[in-house]
Design brief:
globular; transcription regulation; Arc Repressor Mutant, subunit A; Jelly Rolls; alpha+beta; HTH araC/xylS-type domain-containing protein; 286 residues; Homeodomain-like_sf; AraC-bd; 3 domains
Amino acid sequence: MRHTALKRLSSTDHMGPDLPLHIYRQALHDANGGGGVHWHEFYEVGFILAGQGRHILNGTEHPVQRGNCFLLTPADFHDLRPASGETLELFDVVFLADVLQGAVYRLLFHALHSYRVDFTPDEAQRMEQEFQRLYDESNTHRVGSELIMIGTLERILIDLLRHHSQREIQQPIGESAATQYQKLSLSLIYLHHHFREPLTLKEVAQQVHLSPTYFSEYFHQVYGITFQQYLQDLRLRFAHSLLTSSSVPISHVYAAAGFQTLPHFERAFKQKFGHTPRQSRRQPVR
């Protein structure tokens, strides 16, 4: 079997240096229209305009059609594949977290959600108008276009959040008033979005304004596992999903999951799952 490396899409290749936000209008024409399973350094929100197909997200297949909207983080790997004879048309927005107001980011990611919504026809029409406005502003470069683009993106994301759950969403409190437990919850969000990177306990503690020593002790007390164990489990679960849903070679999987060496990855994998990475292989996703 011929293996294809897992693609890593960088922010420098997909957005400009001045504004970490860009929108594309795409048409995917064949079964490999999404370019294969990949992950990226940035966030991505997509909206299907027309056509039908499949969205392979973290190893799980979901049907897509007009009105489907999804939000991906740097922790996700995915591929969009049109159905036979179909063309998938979509708006695709890529951005860095820095472009969002802090309150919007906390509202979206105060819990570990995976955002996927199927809008009704009327809702889809309104959402298409929002994406079209964002697309038009990105191509006109008029006075204030960047501000309108950011504001439109934030409206899209909040609409996606509102439709994601029917339960009442409680606004997270500001960082200055956050309890220690809420800070710990935010550290999990950061971990889940950045676990592929060479993270340290000190770095994550700084993100939530706690001392490394206190953060380490409190993390272990609340979750019953050390920070390093939690981080390694995240990487192993990601690697396991990738191995069982793609033909990406193991030499690429371990690096994509955040491990520094193959021997360390193989030992940790066997210890957790009771078998080697090679034994986890299944038939590739068709």
